[in-house]
Amino acid sequence: MASLISCRRSQFGGPLKNISSGNVRRSLRGAALLLLAFAMLGSLPAPAVAQTKKILFLAGPRDHGMPGRHEYERDLRTLAESFDNASNLNDITTQVIVGRLSRDLTPIKDAAVIVINSSSDRAGDETHPLFPPDPSTDHHGYDPETMAYLKSLEDLLKQEKIGVVVLHYALWAENWRAREYYMNWLGGLWVQIGSKNPTDEWSMTLENESHPILRGVKPWTYRDEVFCRFLLPSDARRTNLILATPKQDKGAIGPQIASWAYERDDGGRGFAFGGADFRDNLAREDYRRFLMNGIAWAARIEIPREGIQSPTPDVSEVSPASHPRSK
Questions:
Q1: How many CA atoms lie within 13 A of 98 on its CB side?
Q2: pTM of this prediction?
């Protein structure tokens, strides 16, 4: 038959089997598909490896305050340990630096977020990790070297979409250039006269509860010094998170926004919270989870549906009463 290819004997002396030309075509087609499959497998990218996110904590030195208050370094080390021990987060590293950030910016280059807890720039004997004391400046800007350093910092934040978190007293900026940077990074700040910072028993209620920072967080009540009445221009990039109501309210300020999240135009994120004074509050689960969620969100870390889970830390260690000034 024309459709058959036949040979009477093989080179080994036995008859060859008749092979259908259709079978030949199917065999060749199958071999080609197999080769194509191997080629495609070889061209596929390697499985994605989870990227480790670094949280860089910038703590001001202990420069004032009673024991258990404004414990910048101890509080940030406690938060770093809480991230290290979180049961539902992976691929996180932490670093704590005390004092001013080095001007070569080496520690921040591989960071996903910087977290600042320190004094403000207002006094010559207090330290902010980024901004020089305002009394040493003309109040409107800085010397050329400092200006170049801050520009390099802002360029790096934009290029790498590094988040910025600022807590408590560090939200107070006096120098006009520092204020400009805070508005760029956070969308708001604390200013003298207009803003307030009473110590009271505060009821913290949740705003915009669908925001990832509020996952697993319930309203809480606690004693704290809460920086509030922030300069917060109307801005669609800001999402208010916490409405704080003082119990005694001796200053008659009423409920105030105490925290917000901010989406920068460059893709980076900001998170601000006006509380975080009393050290022992870190043992409160909802308060600690709120801070950790906010830091993680600013670092572009996916927050679990139940919020970040961490064991209750030991917050008994405080600084000795060695500073003449207290708040």
A1: 10
A2: 0.84
Q: Is the CB of residue 289 less than 8 Å from the CB of residue 312?
A: no
What's the pLDDT at 51? 84
Radius of gyration of the chain (CA): 30
**Stretch 116-127: mean pLDDT:** 96
Q: Is 170 helix (H, G, I), strand (E, B) or coil?
A: helix
Q: Is the separation of the CB atoms in 86 and 308 below 8 Å?
A: yes
CA dihedral 93→185→146→327, nearest 10 degrees, is: -80
Give the length of the chain: 327
Pick left, alpha or beta for residue 275 (phi over 0 → left; psi -120 to 50 → alpha; otherwise beta).
beta
Cα angle 275-227-75, degrees, rounded to a multiple of 5: 30
- For residue 53, give the nearest of 303, 299, 302 by alpha carbon: 299
pLDDT, tens digit, 9 for 90 and up, residues 85-106 = 999 999 999 999 999 999 999 9
Q: Which residues contact 8 (CB under 8 A, 6 or more apart)?
A: 15, 16
How far apart (Å, rounded) are the C-alpha atoms in residues 249 and 258? 15
Residue appearing with tokens 């801050």: 150
